Amino acid sequence: MLKLFDYEKTDVSQLTDEQTAIKVSGLNLKFGKKQVLHNINLRIPKNQITAFIGQSGCGKSTLLSCFNRMNDLAGDCKVSGKILVHGRNVYSKRENVSKLRASVGMVFQKPNPFPMNIYDNVSYGLKLQGRVVRREMDDAVEQALKDAALWDEVKERLFEPASILSGGQQQRLVIARALALKPSILLLDEPTSALDPLTTLIIEELMGALKKRCTIVIVTHNMQQAARVSDYTAFLHQGEVVEYSDSDSLFTLPQKKQTEDYITGRYG
Ligand SMILES: Nc1ncnc2c1ncn2[C@@H]1O[C@H](COP(=O)(O)OP(=O)(O)OP(=O)(O)O)[C@@H](O)[C@H]1O
């Protein structure tokens, strides 16, 4: 299978704690009376790209959002089970959710720059953390924009509104905003579905470069994209993980009929 990046296969069921960025055990989630996630058990490997695929409404984004507790923002959400991020139980009462969201950054389908200039967008989180020494801030903004492969395109216009950027540039700006906080994990929820094919390729190549420094989990409807960029893929159906393995195996030799039907387009 044509891969965008080199990778070594590991059996995800055999990952050690040392190799694991996120460990999910017995996770159930309800919105009101509706149960959306059912007994999820999986380990997300460190410094790899893991994709979640499955039909619309199967719970991909909900599962992703558990990793930095974004679901807390949806009023009637009840979670049971355990999620360890680098060994820390993120649903413990003592968890500092702001710190968690800085170390587990999230990027959504629609680029959402703040209504401010490019520089302020990238430095926003750092300012909230109280780091205000101007030189340090300048260096951090430059580094984050370089890491997001955007620096060369914006270095002459850092103080212009973010809204003047193209959709693909805005998405990289939002990635830079997350990277400025030096996250150990980056959650990408359909990050390219609003972008053209060339810009999509730029973001996919960026993911390959970023996985050296952080673990990436991506939700995508695009199976070619999952096969191209991800090292591991989990197929979800109605809130359950049906199959989870290295992406080559899942896309070429699925073990479950449901997975095969989905990836061959027989449903969904
Ligand atoms: N805040 C919420 N309140 C109530 N129900 C919700 C909420 N968020 C999601 N749901 C429901 O949870 C289920 C799973 O939604 P989710 O967005 O996780 O699916 P998905 O697989 O990511 O779908 P898509 O591919 O369409 O984005 C859906 O039935 C959805 O309606």
Task: List the main descriptive attributes of the protein structure presented here.
Phosphate ABC transporter ATP-binding protein; Rossmann fold; binds adenosine-5'-triphosphate; six-stranded mixed sheet; alpha/beta; cell membrane; 268 residues; 25% strand; four-stranded antiparallel sheet; ABC_transporter-like_CS
Structure description:
One of its GO terms (cellular component) is membrane. InterPro entries: AAA+_ATPase (IPR003593), ABC_transporter-like_ATP-bd (IPR003439), ABC_transporter-like_CS (IPR017871), P-loop_NTPase (IPR027417), PstB-like (IPR005670). It holds the Pfam family ABC_tran. With 268 residues, the protein is α/β, with parallel strands linked by helices. The chain has a single domain (13-263), classed as Rossmann fold, CATH 3.40.50. 34% of the residues lie in helices and 25% in strands. The chain has a six-stranded mixed beta sheet with strand order 6-7-8-3-9-10, sandwiched between helices. A four-stranded antiparallel beta sheet has the order 2-1-4-5, covered by helices on one side. A hairpin with a 2-residue loop joins strand 4 and strand 5. Helix 3 runs parallel beside helix 6, helix 4 crosses helix 6 and helix 6 (167-179) runs parallel beside helix 7 (197-210). 43% of the residues are buried. The model has no long low-confidence stretch (mean pLDDT 93). Adenosine-5'-triphosphate binds at residues 31, 36, 54, 56-62, 74.
SSE topology sketch:
Layout: E1 20-31, E2 34-45, E3 49-53, H1 60-66, E4 77-85, E5 88-89, H2 97-103, E6 104-107, H3 118-128, H4 134-147, H5 151-154, H6 167-179, E7 185-189, H7 197-210, E8 215-219, H8 223-229, E9 232-237, E10 240-246, H9 247-252, H10 257-263
Parallel strand pairs: 3-8, 3-9, 6-7, 7-8
Antiparallel strand pairs: 1-2, 1-4, 4-5, 9-10
Helix pairs in contact: 3-4, 3-6, 4-6, 6-7
Bound molecules: adenosine-5'-triphosphate.
